[in-house]
Amino acid sequence: MAKSTEIKIGELGEIGFGDFLKSSSSSKKVIITDETVYELWGENLLTSFDGLSHAEVIQVPPGEENKSIEICQQIWESLGEYGIQRGDMILNFGGGMVSDLGGFVAAAFKRGINYINIPTTLLSMVDASMGGKTAVNLGAYKNQVGFFHSPSKVFIDPQFLTTLPAEQVLSGFAEMLKHGIIADKKHFNELCKTGGSAEKITSDMIRRSIKIKEQFVVVDFDDKGVRKNLNFGHTAGHAIEGWLLKSGTPWPHGYCVAWGMVVAAYISLLRKMITESEFKNIHRVVSSLYPPLPLVPEDIHSLIDLMKNDKKNAGEHFNFTLLSEIGQAVPDRQATNDLVIIALRYVLGADENEEKNVLPD
Questions:
Q1: I need a surface site. Which of 72, 126, 163, 348 has the fewest CB within 10 A?
Q2: How far are the Cα atoms of 34, 259, 341, 342, 345 from residue 264, in angstroms, in the given order?
Q3: 166-347 sits in which CATH class?
Q4: Looking at residues 60-69, what average pLDDT do you find?
Q5: How many Cβ atoms are within 10 Å of 314's Cβ, its own excluded?
Q6: 264-317 pLDDT tens trace
Q7: What crossing angle do the helices spanning 337-347 and 253-270 adopt, rounded to 10°?
């Protein structure tokens, strides 16, 4: 069991961020952010808190393609030039890419230095900023190199969502839907009523999603048991995301996970684990919020090849988190190559009218 990271939600000036900076005044601070976030919020952050007056700022280009070892190396070299020691601190200020990248940088530098996360997107608020998973990509393969290294604290200020494009709101909303689907049907139904609108997503909904993730992380920090429930939608979702990135047409992480959830839900239906009405409910919600996948059936074998390198696999079969009902996930369920192809063909619209070949559970 891991110690829970302290997560505070509210305006930064009112949730103890300034006091935290004062308590760590003896340590050097480096802010890792991306160019877009810095342009929108960087000056506001630096001028609002005296504790950041001497902080170094490292800006990285935005985009998942920059969550790479090459970018990490540039940051590590900068940290060395700044004279950063193990008692100093990194502040990750940005979305999920920055949280993953900055956490990885912190975990590796001098065998681990402290870091905190200040997430600025809905995705990073409810998912990437907490849980301690840090990683970078290897080309099209998502999160292939990483560490478990938790932030000291997470400060969540919903004001950052006011400048977030609708596309990025929906990306984070997919992870919130996932939390409801795997653990809380009531939360899922409440989220569905918002239609993914930023104005209708309340702080209480964000808190509930964070709480769901936290309840898995605290009891299974190393991802060997119930934390695998959080992988729902990610086996196929990461392959979709990696293939689109490799093809030069990147999609937001949450969009890919949303359709990955439909793949996993369809496999659950084929395995007679959920009812057809439950599957249709999930499919309807996803298809009403997210555009159809820009893929064709000929892409399926490329997706399969990417999935074969998924870190969750064991043996020859694919490892999925599936569902026994909406609100209850079942981790570590294997699926054959043929079964995954059937599900992918369905989601891409190739076999919409094909009679389901239901397989034994």
A1: 163
A2: 33, 9, 12, 11, 13
A3: mainly alpha
A4: 95
A5: 9
A6: 999 999 999 999 999 999 999 999 999 999 999 999 999 999 998 876 666 667
A7: 120
Q: CATH classification of 6-163, choosing from 3.30.70.260, 3.40.50.720, 3.40.50.1970, 3.40.50.1820? A: 3.40.50.1970
**Number of residues that make up the chain:** 361
pLDDT in tens, 217-241: 999 988 899 999 999 999 999 999 9
Would you state the pLDDT for residue 140? 84
Please tell me the least confidently modeled range out of 91-95, 256-260, 324-328, 352-356: 352-356
pTM summary value: 0.90
Domain layout of the chain by residue ranges: 6-163, 166-347
